[in-house]
Design goal:
- The protein is mainly α and 297 residues long.
- It contains 13 helices and no strands.
- It has 2 domains: 136 residues, no CATH class; 151 residues, no CATH class.
- Helix 7 runs antiparallel to helix 8, helix 11 runs antiparallel to helix 12 and helix 12 runs antiparallel to helix 13.
- The radius of gyration is 20 Å and the shape is globular.
Length: 297
Amino acid sequence: MERTEAALRLVRALIGRSVTNHPNAVLVNRRICALLAAWEALPEDILSVTPRLAALAAMQQRDLSGALPRLAGAAHLAASVIRERFSPDAWRALSDLVELINAPIEPSATESALMERVNAALRIIASFSGLAQENMNQIIGWRFLEIGRRIERALATSRFIRQFAFGETPDEALDVLLELADSQISYRLRYVMIASRTPVIDLVALDPNNPRSILFQLARMEAHLAALPGHDSDGRLSAPQQVATPLIARIRTTDAATIDEGVLLEVEASLLKLSDIVTTNYFTTRARSDAPWDSLG
């Protein structure tokens, strides 16, 4: 679901800039398409087409693992395995999302029609996220769901920053980054200035109160990891915490001006390592006597 949302946000940003005459619009659109292609939401040979056609491809391709129909279908398939743990409303929201994304789109559809489709899908995802927060029992399974969600969102935010905050960065690219992180209003209220790299990175990466920031995701992960079973009796950190704790400390003590692409790549590598270690420690088949669930009785 997080990957679906990230792809939808990129498509929305692409459509929103398809009708602008801003001199930097072409460069920014190429960056958006390049990221969609890197996520396998677009074929690489489509990068030179118009933004509208690129958006159509991302919304309709079925043979690419990162395209919207495949992402939404994967979420629906994963949820179907544990359907009994979802409320009827959450399952209905997920089914509605798949139906909406798979609904045919006329080749002649206007930018406004595409934008309406994308916004409708994002509203369904927002409702699903709310239902997961408010309607699911917040026990161990829910914590794993949240850890995965926070890892995915932190990875997406880091990649957004790398794509739109570095290199030859026109102001328009930083505006895209703020849009992707739902931070335009917060930025204008805080800085009352045009987008500038350091304050944008500070808000999108390091703000502990921004629900889209990297640090916000890490803080939530820290709380969930601490609540998982399997801690040593001597109080030592669990294997996942041994990866997460240094990462969280580093981000909390980092200045926005020192963040570059190298730092973000290290953050992403740590997040992927954390995902692997959680999988290894809690989801790899092992003897029942070694299972961390034993402490739960």
